[in-house]
């Protein structure tokens, strides 16, 4: 009997230990940053845009890059999918590790790396094609040829951004016939269609009216369950509304970072205090 | 606003008005002169028949050979120029996007080529023709006119591509496009309306140029049926008729000028129409 009780107890303890290990592992996986930026420096002939940036981007969170104009937020965002390659004047050094791979290393498959990251720019830039073809574009690039699959994906992603009911009867119309707010949501649907894990958003609501802004913000809150969102903004209230983690930048450096309540309500540095008061 | 600023505004307004309307007036005056002198001599026979013997000395017939010849030559030259010009412009704007100095050097050379008078192209084409052992023919004319309009076409395509926002390229790359896919599926489509306009204007430049084909295309009373046959062109036909001592033939030169002008006007109007039609998908 004593023997049985001991066996039962040790079995229970070992199960508890396994469960605890699993939970710890799960927590570790959850806490593992999806992007690790190490010593990232971006220079031009005129000067340094980003100075030795070290930053971990957590998974399934909205990370807001905050700071005055010209502080390097957009450059940091564009470094993440190597769009900085398009600008010869930019000299980039350091490491950006995504899914364990340093994307800055030569020989990277840029096309597939970029498909992991949807991009939303300040102003929507729909492709010169119909609404349908805009969403289907990335799928075709991925080699998907089945018309049924493409149609299904177009519908699903337009529904996700709340655009389906507004455009389902005019999918063949030019994307430019949509309002600016609708175009921005179309660009988001286009990005989501290629199944990214990260969404890069560069002041995506700066050209939108308050209603369209609210729609995009609500979408981001919904999307963060499945995606990591890196949002550039200099609207403090937007940062407060959306951010899980705020990174405050100034002249190419990270000055402060942390939970929005922590750093926006109790800033530690003089620069951030001044920015929060003056807005610049 | 103080008094001086009001005067300044008025002076600027008047100068702009005169400059803008003088262009319109010059064009209208040119059209009036050409139509006034040419319409009287214009007939179905001139447009739809080949010259009979001694046409340039007052004989009967028309200039169908020159009208069709000009189309053959310009069409061939434009097609050839597009095959060189479009990839060249895409290369400058997509592959060389990081090499600003190389881009600017190529643009400088193209601008220099654009500025060379067409008679020099004619002389160069003649030298090439002799080198290749060609006779004055449709082919030699096509090559020479293509040489003339290629720099124009490349720079026009280049300017169209330069107006495309870099963010559109970024959007395409971020979806996983390669440079070639971005060039062909995004930039080409976005610039299509502008390309059509550039193409038609280059065609118009080709059809209206006399000097470049003077030594290379030859002249004939027939419509060529092969590339190695000589070809008549409207500008040369006008030149020969205007040089005639016979008044009636000189009148016919103006009739030919009316035909050429109408062709150019149709090309310009078509360019505007097509540009508008194909720009509906393009972002503004």
From TrEMBL, chain B:
Its annotated compartments are: Cell membrane
Sorted alphabetically, which InterPro entries does this protein's record hold? Answer: MetI-like (IPR000515), MetI-like_sf (IPR035906), Phosphate_transprt_permease (IPR051408)
- Membrane topology (UniProt): Multi-pass membrane protein
Q: Do you know which Gene3D superfamilies this protein is assigned to?
A: MetI-like (1.10.3720.10)
Q: What is the lineage of its organism?
A: Bacteria, Pseudomonadati, Bacteroidota, Bacteroidia, Marinilabiliales
Q: Has UniProt tagged this entry with the keyword Transmembrane?
A: yes
**Regions that span the bilayer:** 12-35, 71-96, 108-132, 138-157, 186-204, 253-274
Where does it sit, as one GO cellular component term? plasma membrane
Q: Which domain of life is it from?
A: Bacteria
Every copy of the ABC transmembrane type-1 domain together lies at 67-271
Q: What is this protein called?
A: ABC transporter permease subunit
Keywords attached to this Swiss-Prot or TrEMBL record, sorted alphabetically, are: Membrane, Transmembrane, Transmembrane helix, Transport
* Originating organism: Mariniphaga anaerophila
Q: Which PROSITE patterns match?
A: ABC_TM1
GO BP, one annotated term: transmembrane transport
